[in-house]
């Protein structure tokens, strides 16, 4: 079973990859490097590294969490403030934002406070989640992780 954090990360990073895919899937980018090597064996070998390079570049380059979240909020059609609310963040990503699910996320992120104080837990969760996204390849504004 996938963890709550993994669902959030996949929702954000997956949306970023989907947004980048049309630009990186352009066949003209690999083609200019292929023409100098005309033989089929060299041309066949060259596209494979080129094809596997974009995913590794996506994995190593930071995903702009703000851009993805702003787009998700806009797509939701709701007035959501993902920058301050863990609930709104999860809603924008079409994920279960129930108290039970947030308590599970708190457990995953090693929250040591009282989970019955949901307001305090939510503030901690929001910050901890953004910090963990940053640690896993997300580009998060510094003011949201301080």
Topology of this structure?
Blueprint: H1 4-24, H2 30-33, H3 40-45, H4 47-60, E1 63-64, H5 65-76, H6 86-92, H7 99-108, H8 118-135, E2 138-139
Parallel strand pairs: 1-2
Structural overview:
The chain is mainly alpha-helical and 146 residues long. The chain has one domain (4-144). Helix content is 63%, strand content 3%. It contains 8 helices and 2 strands. The protein has helices spanning 4-24, 30-33, 40-45, 47-60, 65-76, 86-92, 99-108, 118-135, and strands spanning 63-64, 138-139. A two-stranded parallel ribbon has the order 1-2. Helix 7 (99-108) packs across helix 8 (118-135). Residues 23-59 have low confidence and may be disordered.
Question: What is the structure about, briefly put?
Answer:
This protein has helices at 4-24, 30-33, 40-45, 47-60, 65-76, 86-92, 99-108, 118-135, and strands at residues 63-64, 138-139. The protein is mainly α. The radius of gyration is 19 Å and the shape is globular.
Distance between the termini: 31 Å
Class based on secondary structure composition and strand pairing: mainly alpha
Main sheet properties: 2 strands, parallel
Q: Output the strand order for the largest sheet.
A: 1-2
What's the order of the H and E elements? Answer: HHHHEHHHHE
Helix content range: 55-70%
Q: Number of DSSP helices?
A: 8
Number of strands: 2
* Contiguous runs where pLDDT drops below 50 for at least 5 residues: 23-59
Over all CA atoms, what is the radius of gyration? 19 Å
